[in-house]
Structures are given as C-alpha cells and as structure tokens.
C-alpha cells in the first residue's frame, strides 16, 4: 500500500532544493503485499498445516519473520474442479502448496484452445493472400469472436480458466495426482524458467500461493525447506541439465550423480531486474558496472566451474583504470573452465576475467576438485588442448572497434543480449525509406508493430521492436496467459482473444516494445467498456510474422540489406553482419 | 554471409558476361542480316517491364516473392543491362523524330535518376549516421517547433532573470531566423555547415558581453544550435532520399507510355 505523503508549506525566499520536497516514509519491502485479503487467521491456518509445523519461526530474522512472509508474500486461493492452476509454457513467479483437496499434473497437454491458447500459426501463402484481401479499413479493428471457451473473469477481474472435458483430460493414466501437503511450481518460480507441466484442480482445492521472494526467504531460513526444494531440483532437473552440458556428455550415470551431489546452486542479482534496469537506465556505464554483483573476480583462483542455468552474466577484464567487456554468457554457457583445464596437473592459473551478474543470473557451481577427479581424466589430449586458454579471446575481439567505442559494450550495457530476434538496423545502409514500417503495417491490421527508432552505437540502431527475449519478463504476471511462447525457444506472441488489456506485459517489458492500442469497430469508431466507457485496449507487439511464409515482413521488405533480426546468442553471425 | 564487395563483384561480372553475349549475338545477327533492332527492342521492353515490377513488389510485402533486397539487386544490374541494350537497339544513332527524341529523353532521364538514386542511397546514409541521432522524418517538424519554443523560452527567462538584453537581442537578430530556417532542397549535396558555424561563432563572440549566469544560458543555446544542425541534416538528407523517387517513378511511367506508343507505331507501320 502506498504510504501517505505530506507536502510542507513552501518557504518564501527559500532556495534550498530539499526544503520544498514532498516527504514520505521510506518505502519498505512489504508496502505492497501479494494479497490484501490475507488475514492473521489465514496465516494461523497455514502455520497449523503439517508442512509448516516443522518450520521454526525463530530461525527467521526479526526483519523478515515467517508470519510476515506468509502474510505479505503469500495468498490463499480456492480452485474449483477442472480449473487450470498453472499451464505448461507460462512464466510463473510463484509456487503452490496444497492445503486441502487434490490436483493433477497433466503428462500430456490437452489441445491448445482448451488451455485458452490459439492453435500454433503456420505460414501459408494462402493465409497471406487472405490477410491482404481481408485487410481492415481501420487500424486495430476488433474481430468479433468473443472469449475462448473455458475462460471466465472472476469478481475481482481475475481471469480463470476451466477445462472443458475434465474426465477425459484428467485420466489417471495420463496425469499424476498431488494431494494435501505437496509443493509444486517452485522450480519455475525460483529458476525463472517456463512451467514444465499443466496442473488442474481435481476437486475443490485450497492452495497457498507463495511468490518467489517469499519462497526464497523460506528456503534461506528454513533448512528443511531448502533441503526439500534442492532435493526436488536435483531429482527433477539437475541431472538432465548436467547431462546436456557438452563437457559432461557421455559420463557414466554414477559419475554424473556424483557431480550432481557436489553441485551447488547460486543466484546473483535481482529477480525483477527489469525494474532496476528502468531505474539505472541513464547511469554512467562505470557506475552501472560497479553495481553489478561480482560472481568471480579476475586474478582469483578458479575454485569451481560456473554453469549458467538462467539469466546473463558479463565477462570483463581490467583495462588500465577501467573494466572492458570481453563477452557475455547465457543459459548453458560456462565460466572458468579454461583456467581449470590449463591449471590441471600444472601450476594454478588465475581467472583471466571477472564475471558479473547482468540483472539476474542463476548458476550451478561444480567444484574444481570434482572436475579434476571425475571429468578431466576422461577427456582426450585433443579435447584438453582445445580447452586450454587461448592467447586472446578472438570471438569477441571483432566486435570491439578502434577508439574504445564498442558495440559489444553497448549491447551488454543496454541488455540487448536478451534478444533472440533483436531488430538491428545498419544506419550506414538504411535510407530511412520506411519500407520496413509499411510492410509491417500491411501485414498487421494497418498498424506497424514496431517503431524505427531506438538507441544507436557504432552506426547500428536497435529499433523498438519486440526482441522475443531469452528471458521474457513480459510473460511474468500475465493474468490470462495471453502472452505466450510458440514453442520452448520460439516467438513470443499475444493471443488477441484472451488479452484483457491490463498492460502488465507492457509495463514489464524493459525495452518498451509492447504497445497498448485502442480497438475500433468496423465503422472505425472506438470500442469502449460498458461499465466505465473507457477505451477497450489490447497489447500489441511484433510477432515475427509467424504466419508469413516469407518470414518477418520488415526484413524481406528492406531493399538495402540494412535490417537484421539477430539472435544475440550467435556472436559469429552478428560479427559477420557487422563486418559485411 | 556474403560481403557486399563479393556480391558486387559477382553481379558485375555476370552482367558484363551477359552484355558481352548480347554484343556477340548482335554482331552475328547483323552479319546474318537478321532484324536485330526488333530483337533488342523486344528485349528492352521485357527488361523495362521487369524493372517496373520492383515497385509492385514493394506494394505486396506479404507475398513471398523473394526479398526486396534481391529485387533491388536485380533492378540495379538489369537497369545497367537495359542501358546497354538501349545502345544496341539504337545502334548509337542520335534520335531525330519527335517521338524518338521524347522516348530517348525519357529513357535517359529514368536511367540517370536511377543511377543518381543508387549513388545517393549509398553516399548519404553514412553521412546522416555521423551527423547525430537518427530522427523519424515525420516527427522533424514537431521537433523543430519544439526547438524554436525552447530557445524563445530560454531567452525570455534569461532576460527576466539577468535584466540584460544581450541574449535577447542576439535571439532577435540571429537565432530566431536560424531556428525557423529550413534547409535548401539540395543542401545535403552541397555539404558543409556554414550557417551553423556562423551562428556558433557569433554566439561564441557574444561571450565577452555576458555575465557568468548568461554564459551558462548561452551554453544551453549552443546545445540547441547543435540539435538544430542535426535536425537540418536529418531533414534535408531524408527529404532528398525520398525526393529522387518522385522523379524516378513518374518518369518511369512516362517512359512506359512513350514505349507503348513506340511499339504501337512500329507494329503499325514496320511491315508496310
């Protein structure tokens, strides 16, 4: 809840800048609770539950008491039979504890439209022609069709989704039953990964939903919770994650289990980094870098291999009195391996560069001793030689330009590295003809889905277009799941049928690429709500022309090869494009 | 990723090879007493129609008909080839009749405006990039108005605060006109920032009459002058990049009309 503010009387003749300032109490963590409806009686009910009986409140610091966490970071939700609790692919920021009733985890998802999603769009020439033929006369003309079946809006404006064929979908052979006292959704909440399953209420179920901040505190101060959450992660995800790491391929299962047991989980930075990103957007680059949490420091002994589980990290090295960015790491990439390999069976080699969290980064830490005992002896001489430290990190050197101005520094500082389809415009080639904008409008209801303007560096502009981020913070908090990924690593789209125009996604997007647009009817008149008369709005953004056979219209419409939708993880492609 | 140099080299060589082949065919045709003018005429018509379709492709972005970039490359090199075929078709003869002169003039103007546009679209964008922040063309009048208002507000506030008219006089004498001024149509080709430098030098020379506070305000005005310089560059450059098409496209349609008349006349009278 916002604190009341008081404005003192303006003193005549006073020129002190703070004398006329509006004064209010310093904002505190729980000023905005997860739910205003969580009462002390609810907290007592939760604390009496078997899952919390063993949790000792005295372990929590006085500033973050367990009661406070449950009161402010949790809420009790009642789900009706057949109601969808979480959907596979959605980005959640909370975990659930079943207080009463039961739920089922679906092994196989029902059809997309049953889950309030639209069928995956496929590119087709016929579809393109149809779109041209049926082009609306007015921009953002609403299509009649109504909300999809199963989607209901509750009293508080909260969207609730119900399955249509409950007995068929909740077949015991195709789903797993969870009952009172079970926890689910914690891996997605803490690991900032999409939900891996869909969970549906079987009967009337009472659930405690804990947002990630509260879950993190409970994990920190209640060892039994930490043990349980870590055990679940080790059981469900860690082995698979390690097995996908190229260095650990082909290891025997027992060895992999040994490594998994020795692996530590470490988290750096702020989970909701996009808020801090907005605050620090105009900071000096040196200040910004100093604020980034240091994960490993240049010159230190590499006591373990760091593996990025999610988020991004900046690799930098000292350059005279400053720090120069050498590269950045994303999901699945490792840090410190070359130093460990070079120092193995020889004199120890210190870390050649520092590693800093860019926003939020979730890491796995495998101790050097474990690697030296179980992994390195299994590698061939060629593999060892390939992993030794090179004289100069060549892959990124090309992105640095003479004169100190560097495109790499720019994309890391502005966090454009998050983009899977970042719109880059080569300003030395771009004739500002706006063919890209016109093509976008022609394929999207007469309204372009991007603005040909944005920050520039080294003659390249990053236009204001959805980047289809690796870490799509816009998807966190969408009440209806209208914003979704087409596939695990695919385009981020918005389902116009389920978007309720709440603008949570637009406010969350750190890059400001989601626009809220007012809808019009077939006569071009604005559509307004019956209750308040306010314009009905919908979130719109670039969908990468997913239904266009020729790919993104902006790219294919550019006559001068000035436009690229770049996957910022592919540094080689980016470097080649910059130096065409 | 193919470099621009490699692409240019390959396409130039291909065009040169095709042109060489056409010359050989033309020479052989002449020796064999074939109607080479008719052949080259039809070829030229096909090339002209093909070149015109580039504009149609731009209007249909949702149809997967290759990328606009591919079309532009074809347009450029087919355009050069069309110039070459035009020379073969006329045999280097200077046009004499009224229709012939109009047709040849239209072709020459279309080709010249195309070549100018190609040069401009490669020469100007890097200069706009180096000038400063990229601006959306449609927003420039609004930005210019904002600059004018901001400069007026600063000067008015300075006069009230410092009780001095130096900056106010300068604004009336120089700045007001400078901020309201629009660059000439061909200003980007002339290059240079003479007007901008003159204003900056005059503002610099004014410092000796200014108090410490007024110097701070003059610095703010200098920032606005700099912003105006970039705004003028972006406006004039982008205007020219759009304008050349207003010559190229209407001339193309005129050429098509003259060509249609030419073909009709040839078909009507050549066999009599």
Summarize the structure in words.
The complex is a heterodimer of chains A (580) and B (272). Chain A is of the alpha+beta class and 580 residues long. Chain A folds into 3 domains: 29-112 and 156-221, Jelly Rolls, CATH 2.60.120; 244-397, Jelly Rolls (Sandwich); 407-578, Alpha-Beta Plaits, CATH 3.30.70. Chain A has 20 helices and 26 strands. In chain A, the strands form 8 sheets. In chain A, strands 13, 14, 15, 16, 17 and 18 form a 6-stranded antiparallel beta sheet that branches. In chain A, strands 3-12-5-10 form a 4-stranded antiparallel beta sheet. Chain A has a 4-stranded antiparallel beta sheet with strand order 4-11-6-9, with no helix packed on it. The N and C termini of chain A lie far apart (54 Å). Chain B is mostly helical and 272 residues long. Chain B folds into 2 domains: 4-132 and 248-269, no CATH class; 137-239, no CATH class. Chain B is built from 9 helices and no strands. Chain B has helices at residues 4-31, 36-59, 68-90, 98-131, 140-162, 166-180, 187-190, 194-205, 212-269. In chain B, helix 5 packs antiparallel against helix 6 (166-180) and helix 6 (166-180) runs antiparallel to helix 8 (194-205). The longest helix of chain B has 58 residues, at 212-269. Chain B is elongated. Chain A binds chain B through residues 125, 128-129, 131-132, 427-435, 438-439, 442-443, 451-453, 456, 459, 461, 548-550, 553, 555-561, 573, 576-577, 580, and chain B through 1-4, 58, 60-65, 67-69, 71-72, 121, 124-126, 128-129, 133-137, 237-238, 241-242.
Q: Largest sheet of chain B at a glance?
A: none
Q: Low-confidence parts of chain B lasting 5 or more residues at pLDDT below 50? A: none
Q: Tally of extended strands of chain B?
A: 0
**What is the terminal separation of chain B in angstroms?**
56 Å
Helix residue percentage of chain B: over 70%
> What is the CATH topology descriptor of the largest domain in chain A?
Alpha-Beta Plaits
User: What is the tally of helical segments of chain A?
Assistant: 20
Structural class of chain B: mainly alpha
CATH 2nd-level architecture of the largest domain in chain A: 2-Layer Sandwich
Number of beta strands of chain A: 26
Q: Rg of chain A from C-alpha positions?
A: 26 Å
Distance between the termini of chain A: 54 Å
Count of distinct structural domains of chain A: 3
Extract low-pLDDT stretches of chain A. Answer: 1-19
């Amino acid at each position: 809840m916002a604190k009341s503010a008081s404005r003192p009387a303006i003193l005549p003749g006073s020129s002190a800048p703070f004398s006329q300032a509006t004064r209010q109490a310093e904002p505190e963590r729980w000023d905005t609770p997860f739910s205003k409806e969580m009462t002390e009686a609810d907290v007592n009910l939760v604390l009496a539950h078997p899952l919390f009986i063993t949790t000792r409140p005295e372990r929590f610091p006085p500033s973050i008491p367990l009661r406070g966490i449950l009161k402010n970071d949790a809420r009790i939700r009642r789900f009706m039979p057949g109601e969808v609790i979480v959907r596979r692919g959605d980005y959640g920021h909370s975990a659930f504890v079943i207080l009463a009733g039961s739920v089922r985890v679906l092994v196989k998802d029902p059809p997309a439209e049953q889950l309030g999603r639209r069928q995956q769009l496929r590119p087709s020439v016929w579809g393109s022609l149809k779109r041209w033929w049926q082009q609306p006369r007015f921009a953002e003309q609403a299509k009649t069709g109504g909300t999809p079946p199963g989607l209901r809006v509750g009293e508080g404006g909260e969207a609730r989704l119900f399955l249509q064929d409950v007995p068929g979908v909740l077949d015991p052979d195709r789903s797993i039953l969870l009952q009172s006292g079970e926890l689910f959704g914690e891996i997605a909440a803490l690991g900032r990964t999409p939900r891996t399953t869909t969970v549906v209420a079987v009967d009337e179920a009472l659930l405690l939903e804990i947002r990630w901040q509260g879950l993190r505190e409970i994990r920190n101060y209640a060892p039994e919770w930490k043990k349980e959450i870590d055990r679940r992660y080790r059981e469900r995800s860690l082995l698979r994650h390690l097995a996908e790491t190229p260095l650990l391929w082909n290891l025997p299962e027992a060895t992999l289990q040994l490594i998994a047991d020795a692996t530590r989980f470490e988290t750096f930075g702020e989970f909701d980094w996009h808020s801090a990103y907005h605050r620090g957007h105009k900071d000096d680059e040196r200040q910004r870098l100093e604020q980034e949490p240091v994960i490993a420091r240049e010159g230190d002994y590499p006591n373990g291999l760091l593996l990025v589980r999610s988020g991004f990290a900046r690799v930098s090295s000292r350059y005279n009195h400053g720090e120069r960015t050498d590269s950045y790491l994303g999901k699945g990439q490792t840090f410190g391996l070359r130093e460990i390999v070079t120092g193995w069976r020889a004199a120890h080699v210190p870390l050649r560069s520092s590693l800093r969290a860019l926003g939020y980064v979730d890491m796995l830490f495998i101790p050097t001793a474990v690697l030296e005992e179980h992994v390195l002896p299994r590698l061939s001489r060629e593999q060892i030689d390939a992993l030794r430290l090179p004289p100069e990190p060549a892959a990124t050197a090309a992105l640095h330009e003479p004169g100190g101005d560097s495109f790499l520094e720019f994309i890391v500082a502005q966090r454009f590295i998050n983009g899977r389809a970042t719109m880059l415009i080569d300003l030395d080639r771009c004739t500002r003809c706006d063919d890209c904008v016109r093509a976008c409008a022609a394929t999207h209801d007469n309204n372009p889905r991007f603005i040909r303007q944005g920050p520039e560096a080294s003659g390249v502009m990053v236009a204001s277009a959805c980047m289809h981020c690796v870490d799509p913070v816009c998807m966190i908090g969408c009440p209806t799941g209208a914003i979704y990924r087409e596939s695990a690593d695919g385009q981020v789209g918005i389902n116009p049928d389920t978007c309720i125009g709440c603008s949570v996604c637009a406010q969350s997007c750190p890059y400001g690429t989601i626009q809220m647009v007012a809808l019009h009817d077939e006569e071009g008149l604005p559509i307004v709500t019956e209750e308040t008369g306010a314009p009905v709005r919908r979130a719109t953004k670039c969908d990468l022309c997913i239904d266009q056979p020729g790919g993104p219209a902006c790219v294919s419409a550019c006559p001068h090869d000035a436009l690229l939708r770049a996957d910022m993880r592919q540094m080689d492609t980016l470097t080649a494009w910059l130096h065409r | 990723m193919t470099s621009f140099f490699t692409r240019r080299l390959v396409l130039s060589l291909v065009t040169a090879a095709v042109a060489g082949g056409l010359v050989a065919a033309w020479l052989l045709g002449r020796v064999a007493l074939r109607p080479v003018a008719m052949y080259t005429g039809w070829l030229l018509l096909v090339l002209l129609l093909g070149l015109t379709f580039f504009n149609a492709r731009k209007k249909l972005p949702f149809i997967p008909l290759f990328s606009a970039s591919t079309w532009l490359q074809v347009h450029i090199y087919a355009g050069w080839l069309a110039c070459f075929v035009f020379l073969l078709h006329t045999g280097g003869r200077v046009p004499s009749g009224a229709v012939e002169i109009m047709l040849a003039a239209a072709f020459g103007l279309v080709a010249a405006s195309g070549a100018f546009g190609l040069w401009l679209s490669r020469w100007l964008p890097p200069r706009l990039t180096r000038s400063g922040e990229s601006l959306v063309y449609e927003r420039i009048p609004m930005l210019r108005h904002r600059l004018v208002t901001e400069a007026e507000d600063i000067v008015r506030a300075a006069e009230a605060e410092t009780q001095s008219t130096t900056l106010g006089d300068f604004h009336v004498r120089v700045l007001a006109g400078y901020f309201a001024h629009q660059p000439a149509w061909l200003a980007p080709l002339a290059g240079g920032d003479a007007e901008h430098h003159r204003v900056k030098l005059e503002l610099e020379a004014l410092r000796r009459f200014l108090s410490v506070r007024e110097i701070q305000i003059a610095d703010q005005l200098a920032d606005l002058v700099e912003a105006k310089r970039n705004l003028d560059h972006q406006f004039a450059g982008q205007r020219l990049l759009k304008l050349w098409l207003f010559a190229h496209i209407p001339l193309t349609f005129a050429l098509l009309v003259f060509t249609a008349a030419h073909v009709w006349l040839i078909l009507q009278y050549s066999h009599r």
